[in-house]
Structure formats: C-alpha cells, structure tokens
Design brief:
By secondary structure, this protein is an alpha/beta fold. It has helices at about 40-55, 60, 75-80, 90-100, 155-165, 180-190, 205-215, 225-230, 275-285, 285-295, 315-325; strands at about 5-10, 10-20, 30-35, 65-70, 85-90, 110-120, 125-130, 145-150, 175-180, 195-200, 220, 240-245, 255-270.
C-alpha cells in the first residue's frame, strides 16, 4: 500500500515521498478528482462538483478541486493509491473490491474512505418478453444458448453483470455473450441480433428508452425479489431496491422492481477532516446548483447520501452526516 505525503509547489500539491496510503493530513489546498472519459456521466458530474466548490467554497477557504478525465474506476483507484489524485468517482462494486482486496483488485486499499453516494447505477436486465416466464432475474437461465449483451469487455458493466448473475447461480458461460456498448446493444436488440442486454445506468437510460420505443411490449426489464437481492448482497452490502416508476420508458405501463448500486465519491484518508467536511457540507447545501449543471445530480439527496457505500466514511463526511442527524451503520465508522 503506498502512502504519499504532500507538499505545496507553484503548481499545487505534489507528491514528495511515497511511503504508504494512510498518513499525515493535507491542509486546505488544491485537490484533484479522477472521473472517467468525457463521453460518460462521471466526468461532467465531477466538473459540476468542482465548479460548485470553486464558486461557493474556494473564495472563503482556498479549498479547490479540479476534475480530470480518466479511464474510470480502475484507473482512479490506481491514481488514488499513487497520490496523483485525492478524490475519485468509483462504481460501488469497484469500491467494494478495493476495500476488501477481492475481484480484479489485487490488494486492499485500506487508505480509502467514502464521501458520498452520488447517483445510482440502476440494473436493467432487458430481455425479449418470450423468455420472461417469472419476470424476475431468474429468467436469465432461459437465455442459456441464446445471445445476450453483457457490456464491453473488461468494462464495469461486464464486471457488475457477471457478479450479479454469478451470485444468483446463473452460469453466464452457458449464455452466448455479446460484448457491446449501450447504444450498440440497443441496436442489436431492435435488429433481432441479441435476445437481451445488460444496461446498468441512471434511469431513464437512453439505450433502454430506445429499445422500449421501438419494441414496446416485445421486451421487459427483469425484476428482483427480496431473496434475490439478499443473494446479490451476500458479499457486499452494496445494492438497494429501486423502483423504476411506470412511464419512465415508452410503453412501460407498470413499475419495475429492480436494484441499484451507488456511484460514489471516494477520498484518500490523508485529506484533512476539515476540508472533507467543508466539501461535503457545500455539496449538500447547494444541490440545486449541481442540478442546474448536470441532471444526474438530481438523484442526490441527503437521505440517500450513505446508501450502499462500500467503505467507511471519511471523518469529515462522517461529522457532517452526524450533524444532520443521519443514523450511521457501524460498518461505515472507523474512528
């Protein structure tokens, strides 16, 4: 585990010694937040948060956060570990992998802490109606020998899809897997080239909207029972129930009871408590500001701030949430 102490230079905070991730706290200063590619949601949400801090916080505290484009959750973990960034947006599952040192992550990132859930990746397992015998995720076994898009190779989409199905005892190797992005998955479903697709995204997801507009009653989004959710959460308490309200998608006449995992804002534990407190407080006192910059932030609310977080809260975030009267589960407290 690497830890980086920081010093101030003319170009901002720079690493001066690499010893281990947990260490002396930074004072107020310039921080960097890793997001993802510019074509997705992570980057513009990161820019929205950094803009908020620049406008509302920097003039009075000298705290600043710059959002940078990255390859997403996996690279953000690496950059956090190396001290090149202090904040990073992560898929909840990758945060859990990092905290536990499991899955594709080869060590425990014990020096990471949670700041907030940002918005949720809603699980959309969309399949042709004829394979949906029960209407629940168990119907994925009816796709054995059929074609299903799991997501791009080595993507978070593929990783979370395989994880969920594996926890439910569904053997994805018996499915004829296609490795397509969201738009191409919707195209392939509409063209009859695949029988289903895995689309974890904020609702409404564009690819799902397109599929419902074109195929209507010919497709359905599989639901999850409480028992199935418990199996998915058997390793990590990460996913929560999520209702896609009727009318969210074209020709969708009934609520869909699925599950969602959080996209989270993570931080190194050597960032000062006061700075993280001020950043967290500023975010939740100015949600309308964020909403006007990017619609994904409309999913954020104080009562959902700690839902599904995979690692303990940073002391600064913990202090703010306690002040707001939130009940913090023991697993999120590491004093």
């Amino acid at each position: 585990m690497t830890q980086t102490r920081f010093g101030k230079s003319s170009r901002g905070w720079v690493a001066t010694a690499v010893l281990g991730l947990a260490g002396a706290a930074q004072g107020a200063g310039d921080y960097v937040m890793g997001t993802a590619t510019t074509g997705g949601t992570y980057y513009p949400v990161g820019v929205a948060i950094s803009t908020l801090i620049k406008v509302k916080l920097e003039p009075s505290t000298d705290i600043a956060v710059s959002a940078i484009s990255s390859a997403g959750s996996g690279e953000n973990l690496k950059l956090l570990d190396e001290g090149q960034i202090q904040f990073g947006i992560l898929q909840g599952l990758y945060g859990a992998y990092a905290w536990n040192g499991t899955g594709p992550v080869d060590k425990k990132y014990e020096g990471l802490r949670s700041v907030s859930m940002l918005w949720q990746n809603v699980e959309h397992f969309v399949v042709r109606q004829e394979v949906a015998e029960t209407g629940t995720i168990a119907d994925m076994t009816n796709l054995y020998g059929e074609s299903f898009s799991i997501g791009k190779r080595n993507s978070g989409t593929e990783g979370s899809g395989r994880f969920i199905l594996g926890k439910l005892g569904i053997d994805v190797e018996q499915v004829d897997l296609a490795y397509l992005g969201y738009g191409p998955s919707a195209d392939a479903l509409q063209n009859g080239n695949i029988d289903g697709m895995n689309i974890p995204a904020g609702a409404p997801a564009t690819a799902v909207t397109r599929a419902y507009a074109s195929l209507g009653d010919d497709i359905t989004t599989l639901s999850f029972t409480d028992q199935q959710l418990a199996k998915v959460n058997s390793d990590f308490e990460l996913w929560t129930p999520y209702v896609i309200a009727a009318g969210t998608y074209p020709n969708q006449d009934e609520d869909i009871h699925t599950i969602a995992q959080p996209n989270i804002l993570a931080v190194r534990n050597d960032v000062s408590e006061d700075d993280v407190y001020q950043i967290t407080k500023t975010i939740y006192e100015n949600l309308p500001f964020l909403n006007n910059i990017h619609p994904a932030t409309k999913a954020m609310a104080l009562e959902k701030a700690i839902a599904g977080l995979p690692m303990p809260l940073h002391p600064g975030a913990l202090r703010f949430y306690r002040e707001q009267g939130l009940t913090i589960p023991d697993r999120l407290v590491q004093e």
